[in-house]
Design brief:
Blueprint (H helix, E strand, L loop, with lengths): L6 E10 L3 H19 E18 L2 E13 L1 H13 L3 E8 L5 H5 L12 H16 L1
Antiparallel strand pairs: 1-3, 1-4, 2-3
GO molecular function: small ribosomal subunit rRNA binding; structural constituent of ribosome
Family: Belongs to the bacterial ribosomal protein bS6 family.
InterPro entries: Ribosomal_bS6, Ribosomal_bS6_CS, Ribosomal_bS6_sf, Ribosomal_S6_plastid/chlpt, Transl_elong_EF1B/ribsomal_bS6
Length: 135
């Protein structure tokens, strides 16, 4: 018996603004259900309505949604095919997450503490630079 390999993926879908809030919510639910049928939906992040970098099909705005999921590699081809044949999907991308960086991404990074500035040393360097420039 062979073991089923599952990978972690993320997909971003840009949906047409012409569909409205309800139409976009329906499409996102449709794709979430499809992903859940073939894998596991880990998270869904609604980015909302944003301006597109360039017009796509004469549209300048779209609804962005990020979905993190886990599934078999062959399902991503089917998901991409469904994106392409669904009316209202302007753009989509599916990216396999690198497992080497999965733990690093989960840990919050500690912000670097700012180093104190030695005002006297900076002033002395400025005076030296002015004196050498005057010579």
């Amino acid at each position: 018996m062979t073991e089923v390999v599952k990978n972690k993926y993320e997909t971003v879908i840009v949906l047409s603004a012409k569909l409205g809030e309800e139409g976009n919510a329906e499409l996102v639910e449709k794709f979430k259900a499809l992903i859940a049928k073939h894998g596991t939906v880990e998270s869904v992040d609604e980015w909302g309505k944003r301006r597109l970098a360039y017009p796509i099909n004469k549209e300048t705005e779209g609804y962005y949604t990020l979905v993190n999921f886990e599934s078999t590699p062959d399902f991503t081809a089917e998901l991409d095919r469904r994106y392409k044949i669904t009316d209202g999907v302007l753009r989509s991308i599916i990216v396999k997450k690198d497992p080497r960086f999965a733990t690093a991404a989960a840990k919050p990074r500690k912000a670097a503490e700012p180093k104190p500035i030695d005002v006297e040393a900076v002033a002395a360097e400025a005076v030296e630079a002015n004196e050498s420039a005057a010579e």
